[in-house]
Amino acid sequence: MTDSILSKAATMEIPINSNGDTRTAEEDSLEQIGGSLDEVVSKLPVAMDLQQVMVSGPNLNETSIVSGGYGGAAEGIIPTSSIKAPNMHHSSSNPSMMLEEATRGVAVEKFDSVKKWSINTYKCTKQMFSERFGRGTKTVDLELEAQIDVLRETKLKYERILRLAQELTSHFYNMVQTQQALGDTFADLSQKSPELQDEFGYNAETQRLLCKNGETLLGAINFFVSSINTLVNKTMEDTLMTIKMYENARLEFDAYRTDLEELSAGPRDAAAMMRIEMAQQQYQIQREKYERLRSDVTIKLKFLEENKVKVMHKQLLLFHNAISAYFAGNQQQLEQTLRQFNVKLKPPGSDKPSWLEEQ
Fold first, then answer.
1. Calpha distance 21→282 (Å, rounded)
2. What does the buried/exposed string (b/e) look like for 142-176 if buried means 16 or more CB atoms within 10 Å of the residue's CB?
3. Residue 332, Cα to own-chain centre: how many angstroms?
4. How far is it between the farthest Cα atoms of the chain?
5. How far is CA 352 from CA 107, 218, 222, 268, 346, in A?
C-alpha cells in the first residue's frame, strides 16, 4: 500500500496554471505531494525505522515525469529510466566513439590546413597578377638577381657542352667498334691471302692499336661527360631549386606586405586592429623566411662558383691532353694523362651482363 501511494505521489500530474491565479502549478503540486506523504507516514507502524522506509520507498528508476500541455488538454509521460546521465560510464565508453572522435580531429586539422593553404594561394596569386600588370610593388635585390641570371645562362651553355660531348662519345664509340671490326677482318684476310699477308697484317695491327688508344680516349671522354653531368644536373640544379624556393618566399613576403599595407591604410576600429595585428605577425614570419632563403641562395651561389671553377679546370685539362695525345699517336702520353687524373678504364666487356643475368 505504501509503495502504491508513494508511486502515485511521484507520478502525479503537475498541471501548468494559466488562468491567472497567483498560486503557481509548482505550489499546488507540492501541496498534493505533501498531503499524500503525510497520509503515508500516519499509516506506517511506529516501530518501522528509517532504513525500512528507505527500502520500501519507490524506485527512482521507475519514476515518471508527467508533462501537461499548455492548456492542460495534452499530456505525456516520460519514464526517467530512459534518460541517461552524461559521463556516467565514461571509463567504459565505446571504442568506436573514440575512433570517431579521433577521425573528427584529423578531419578538422586537414580542414584548417586546406583553409590556410587556400588563403595563402589567393594572396600569392593576387600579388603575382598585380606585379605582372604593373599595379603591385616587388622586392628586388639587384645584385642577387644579376647572379641568378648569370647562373641560368651558364647552365644553358654547360648543358650544350654536355650534349655535344655525349654526341662525341657516341660517334667515337661507333668509330672504335668499326676499327675493331676492320682490324679483325684484316687479320682474317692475312691468313687466307698469302700473297697479301704482310699488307693485311700491317693494317690489322694498326687498327688494333687505334682501337686500343680509342678505348683509352673513350675512358677520358666518359669521365669528362660524367663530371659535367654531375655539375649541371646535380650541383647547379640544387642551387636552382633553392633559388626557386627563394622566389616563392619573396612572392609570399610581398603578398603579406601588401596585405598589411592595405589594412594599415583602412579604418582603425577594434576588429580592424585585431586584423592588423594578425597581419603583422604573418608579415614577420614571411620576412624571416625570405631573408633566410636569400642568405642560403647567396651562400650556395658562392660555393657553386668555386666548385665550378675547380671542376672545369681539371676536366678541361684532362680533355685537352687526352685528345692531343690520341691524335698525335702518343700512346704513352695518353695513358699517363689518365693516370694523372685518376681515370680508371673499364675492362672490355664489363658493361655486358653476365651469363647468369642473361639466364
1. 64
2. eeeeebbeebeeebeebeebbeebeeebeebeeeb
3. 55
4. 151
5. 54, 17, 17, 77, 11
DSSP class of 196 = G
pLDDT in tens, the chain (359 residues): 444 444 444 444 444 444 444 444 444 444 444 454 445 444 444 434 444 444 444 444 444 444 444 444 444 444 444 444 444 444 445 777 777 777 777 778 787 778 777 877 887 888 787 878 878 788 888 999 999 999 999 999 999 999 999 999 999 999 999 999 999 999 999 888 888 888 889 999 999 999 999 999 999 999 999 999 999 999 999 999 999 999 999 999 888 888 888 888 888 788 888 888 888 998 899 999 999 999 999 999 999 999 999 999 999 999 999 999 999 888 888 889 888 888 877 655 554 444 444 44
Residue indicated by cell numbers 662558383: 305
Which residue carries 651562400 as its cell? 299
| Residues 169 and 218: beta-carbon distance below 8 Å | yes
> Residue 49: left (phi > 0), alpha (psi -120 to 50), or beta?
beta
Query: Mind giving me the DSSP string for 211-236?
Result: HHHHHHHHHHHHHHHHHHHHIIIIII
Helices 270-327 & 331-340, crossing angle to 10 degrees?
Answer: 150
Which residue type is seen at 326?
Y
